[in-house]
Write a structure and sequence with these properties.
The protein is an all-beta fold. It is built from no helices and 21 strands. The chain has a four-stranded antiparallel sheet, with no helix packed on it. It is globular and about 45 Å long.
Length: 257
């Protein structure tokens, strides 16, 4: 069983479980995000193996929620973004998997209002759709959408709903390849990865103006499934993540601006 926890600056650890979380093996509470005020957002897997979202206030009060179109079958439901999915205004982003196994994006405001969205061009087949990656203080959301051919593309969605899509020029065009938007910082720069035609992953940083810089970590492997996998970027565009070397071993990295 999974449990969430909060570690205070003094080292004190508080364990918690979302109401309704299952108690069997691999079920339970997943804590992913914390904002400057100490609110936490994540998801939990219930006794029927359905996923639900939650927000924990700084005082520990937990509110659970489901996206309107979330499915209720095993391993369907509501999924909170794992990197930067909660901003300072307590807005939460993520995706829902519906009854037909199609993914849709959502943003939940602090007052509990949930807005769902699909990126134009997102596929409607099983396990295709829209995958938000995070949200910054301005309410801008980056992410990935998978089209009807299984190709992935990056997107940036402004708070007013305006969507900009993008592809890294060297990204592959086969199923499972393409561009994956990951995180967004306060200025509006997006980091992520792209998979080329040989199945190798590379990092990128897209500025809020659309300028793109690509990079590979020294020592990253060049075989299928290997390469560079960025995670998050801070307001100065320092980027952390992992890379897989030629032997298939994972390593961490920090890329300075």
């Amino acid at each position: 069983m999974w449990h969430g926890y909060l570690r205070d600056p003094d080292g004190t650890i508080t364990r918690f479980d979302a109401p309704g979380a299952g108690t069997a093996e691999f079920q339970g509470t997943f804590a992913y995000n914390i904002n400057p005020a100490g609110a936490i957002a994540g998801q939990y897997l219930d006794a029927n193996n359905v996923y639900h979202g939650y927000v924990s206030a700084p005082d520990g009060a937990i509110t659970t929620f489901d996206a309107p179109d979330a499915g209720t079958g095993a391993f369907q439901g509501t999924f909170t973004a794992t990197i930067g999915g909660l901003n300072a205004q307590r807005a939460v982003v993520g995706s829902s998997l519906d009854a037909n196994n199609v993914y849709h994006g959502f943003v939940r405001a602090a007052d509990g209002t949930i807005t769902t969205f699909d990126i134009p061009g997102a596929g409607t087949g099983a396990f295709q759709g829209t995958f938000p990656g995070g949200i910054n203080p301005a309410g801008t959301i980056p992410g990935t959408y998978t089209d009807s051919s299984g190709l992935n593309h990056g997107f940036v969605r402004a708070r007013d709903g305006t969507v900009t899509t993008f592809d890294i020029p060297d990204a592959g065009t086969g199923s499972g390849q393409g561009t994956f938007g990951s995180n967004i910082n306060t200025p509006g720069d997006v980091d992520g990865m792209y998979i080329d035609g040989n199945g190798v992953s590379h990092g990128f940083l897209r500025s809020k103006h659309g300028d793109i810089t690509t990079f590979d970590v020294p020592g990253a492997g060049t075989g299928n499934g290997q390469g560079t996998f960025p995670g998050s970027n801070n307001p100065r565009d320092a980027i952390t993540g992992s890379y897989i070397d030629a032997s298939g071993v994972y390593h961490g990295f920090l890329r300075t601006p």
